[in-house]
Structure prediction request, 220 residues.
Amino acid sequence: MATKSVGAGKAVTLGMLALEDSGSHLAINYTLTGGTHAVAITPKALTLTGFDAANKTYDGNATATILNAGSLSGVIAGDTNSVTVSNTGATFANKNVGAGKTVTLSGVSLAGTDAGNYSIAATATDTANIEKRTLAVTWSGANKVYDRMTDATVTTSDNRVQDDNLAINRSTAFDTHQAAERQGKQAKKVTIQVDVTFRIVPESGCRRPISANHGAELLS
Prediction:
């Protein structure tokens, strides 16, 4: 054939032809005429081996980090420097926490001067984990004036992934309704899920407000 490359209807050229009669001398009774034939060379299929994706902590998306993009298997000796492989990225099946989740490498394609002589699947797969995210909650409480109630006002903030809808259930209360000064203390304790500080300001008529900090109890 004229070239080694993939193609259809490629002409096959025969070399020098001659008749032999092995001593019978019958070959002189025949003559050879030329002929042509066409064949196809189809691409050789390659495989991608060694694709490896990293585990990650939940971050609200399915994007995966590629540790190893893999290498080509099946390239014919002599073509190894003229065929390369690339991809467009990797993703988990979904964003949610789980072990052994399928990660798909997409957009796998070949490049190089001999790339047209080979084929490869457009995707490859691996497995990796999405671990749970630690939710760090910050609590902020408001001071209040004595009202014979133990109710406490608390606001919270946390490091949740943007747009994730979470509800944090909590129960908050001062340990007693009395102002700190009347208990002879410098602080009030508030029962809450994490440490927080508050003060209760005595009712008007007292000489001075008492303010101080005290660690809160942790709810079990």
